[in-house]
Amino acid sequence: MREERHSFNVIIMAETEQFHTTCCIAGGGPAGMMLGLLLARAGVDVIVLEKHADFFRDFRGDTIHPSTLELLYELGYIDDFLKLPIQRAERVGGTIGDCKFIAADFTHLPTHCKFLALAPQWDFLNFIADRAKKYPAFHLKLEHEVTDLIREGKRIVGVRAKTKQGTVEVIADLVVGADGRGSCVREASGLAVTDLGAPFDVLWMRVSRKPEDSEQSLGNFRSGRGLVTINRKEYWQCGYLIPKGSLEELKKKGLAELQKEIAESAPFLREQVGELDSWDKIKLLTVQINHLDRWHLPGLLCIGDAAHAMSPMGGVGVNLAIQDAVAAANILAARLREKTVTEELLTRVQERREWPVKMTQRLQVFMQNKFLLPVLESHVRLATPWPVKLLANFPIFRRIPARIIGMGFRPEHVRTPEIK
Ligand SMILES: Cc1cc2nc3c(=O)[nH]c(=O)nc-3n(C[C@H](O)[C@H](O)[C@H](O)COP(=O)(O)OP(=O)(O)OC[C@H]3O[C@@H](n4cnc5c(N)ncnc54)[C@H](O)[C@@H]3O)c2cc1C
User: Fold this and answer.
1) Which of 86, 241, 325, 344 has the highest local Cβ count within 10 Å?
2) Average pLDDT of span 338-350
3) C-alpha of residue 117 to centroid of ligand 1, in Å
4) Looking at the domain that runs over 4-66+80-85+118-196+288-376, which CATH code has it been given?
5) C-alpha distances in angstroms, 55 versus 28, 32, 352, 382?
């Protein structure tokens, strides 16, 4: 077999190109890009394989929470990040029936940025990629779709990926599955998943925003309806809750029905709902809440949505994925450099992150069952639940959701050094 060696350990065997690296990350989403950046910054050779050609995707959650902004501060990136065209939300609120309330007030958090930043995910990922590319140890390979794991006995030693040119193999001391909720790595690993169930799906769409509209991002809940409206300056990013699997039924009723339901949920959108004139403008998020029982195998670790798909409730998926990446880098970077990563260390990553994930998921399940389901199933005028009365009348209580949403359970901090 013909064998050629190139600069950073490339071996070409017939038509299968083979790369060697210390850490191969499948997926260039928030978890994969942040882990790639932190490891490369700490001097660990890393290859991130991303199946798409760029980061410009449909809406996938635009919220960058104070905990993530704090990490950008710790990395010295915050001033540049805040120069991007982001919006700041110091408070988020809701309406239930006719009761309008502020649900979370971030202005008291012990973080440098006391607000949610609203930025399209592609802006955030491009920002991280630009910083990561400054480190010679960082290699991002776009249009590389991971299709399988490579094993030696019980150990995972690499991945196979499909490219326009053919198949490549990446051999690594550690493979990280950060390829999201439909993770190929998780599937190929055979790791067991526990599904906590989610009774609703979300339709995401944009509706233009009038200058006189309120500034505030809101959850709008009326009997039988739930609509989240996120202020994105020129437009409202709208998330409409529907019972799980009911999109086809809604499609049969027609777009006019959807427009009517949205206008009823948020009357301030009445004039603009006609913009939703094609189902192509409406994206379905099939909500899942699940987690792997075990996040690792010898030579393999899963993080982010690949380890635990979150409900969009609280908009915490992006931020939890990033927290996983920071914890993984803190625990693994030095040992990856020494090439002494053991499975016991991978267990420590899971132990560190499992508790915050499970706490958040439990809270999401509690909220969906005790709050969202009754709203979606109600056909009478909604009574204001007592926690909402508390939030509406006693501002101090707004600090509790702000802490849970903005910082999460057990926030991580960057402990990895910059090695130049
Ligand atoms: C429509 C929609 C709306 C959402 N809304 C919100 C929200 O409001 N708030 C919130 O917090 N979260 C939201 N989420 C979830 C949020 O996007 C995720 O929780 C978060 O992005 C998880 O980050 P991740 O890096 O683990 O995975 P992902 O962001 O899913 O990134 C995985 C990456 O891996 C790539 N990939 C996948 N398979 C392969 C493969 N085989 N080979 C190579 N690359 C691969 C993907 O292209 C992607 O870039 C939403 C998701 C969707 C789909």
Assistant:
1) 325
2) 97
3) 18
4) 3.50.50.60
5) 8, 12, 29, 41
